[in-house]
Specification:
Ferritin, 10 helices, mainly alpha
Length: 252
């Protein structure tokens, strides 16, 4: 794998994470428990869609100069998506979505802080823009984790249940895909494993204040980096890609 191909794959993975996160959050549009939260989660989804477009556009350009972000998003099959499994899991309740976004955003603060110093100028610029967004996503969801965990017995139960279900999927966030070690050596990408220590410290601090317990399970779910996904991604793509599949090259 050439360095250009490795960068394209790396940007594809980051873009896919943002795109699928965006889809899951957009499902809360008109359904969130509060109007303010309806607007907040919808705006989070828009932030992620914008980030996905920039990353997938860069990935497509590195593969073929004429390949667009739309082609990357809407013309690939399920096995060609490289997102982490955690972002494709279906929303079960509000607590689940908040806990997931909190865990992912805490990681993304570390990730995009490092990537904003990338030696690849385009990737660094995208990361710098993303960092402003993910810092707010983290602060907002951390506040909600406190409200849910230290709220009513029912909100605490739901938040803890979500944490237990999501925890096995968090480990994949800190794993690198094939070819990324060269990018790390050249200062282009970041070694995801180095973000675990500050991430777990941040997460533990918030969970302790929220009276939530850190899960003890050592079980790990992985596969997204190699295109092996849960059954849920196929359902997402069926809806997400319908128009472009039915009417290729449609514009409006």
């Amino acid at each position: 794998m050439s360095q250009q191909q490795a960068i394209a794959q790396y940007c594809t993975r980051l873009g896919d994470n943002s795109l699928i996160q965006s889809y899951r959050l957009s499902e809360w549009c008109s359904k969130a428990p509060l109007l303010e939260e309806d607007l907040a989660l919808t705006n989070f989804a828009l932030d992620m869609t914008g980030r996905a477009e920039l990353l997938l556009e860069l990935a497509g350009k590195l593969q073929t100069p004429t390949r667009t972000a739309d082609e990357m998003a809407y013309r690939r099959g399920e096995r060609q998506y490289l997102n982490d499994l955690i972002v494709e899991l279906p929303n079960t309740d509000f607590a689940f979505s908040i806990i997931r976004q909190f865990l992912v955003s805490a990681f993304e603060v570390q990730l995009y802080t490092a990537l904003s110093q990338s030696t690849h100028t385009e990737l660094a610029a995208i990361a710098a823009k993303a960092l402003k967004e993910v810092k707010y996503h983290y602060a907002h969801t951390a506040d909600w984790v406190l409200r849910l965990g230290d709220g009513t017995p029912e909100s605490n139960r739901r938040a803890q249940a979500a944490l237990e279900k999501l925890w096995p999927y968090t480990h994949e966030l800190f794993e690198m895909a094939a070819g990324e070690d060269t990018l790390v050596a050249n200062g282009i990408a970041t070694n995801a494993a180095t973000h675990y220590a500050p991430w777990i410290e941040q997460v533990e601090t918030v969970l302790a204040e929220a009276t939530l317990n850190l899960p003890k399970t050592t079980h790990r779910q992985r596969g997204g980096h190699t295109g092996i996904h849960t059954e849920h991604l196929g359902h997402i793509l069926t809806e997400l890609q319908y128009l472009q599949r039915a009417y290729p090259n449609a514009i409006w």
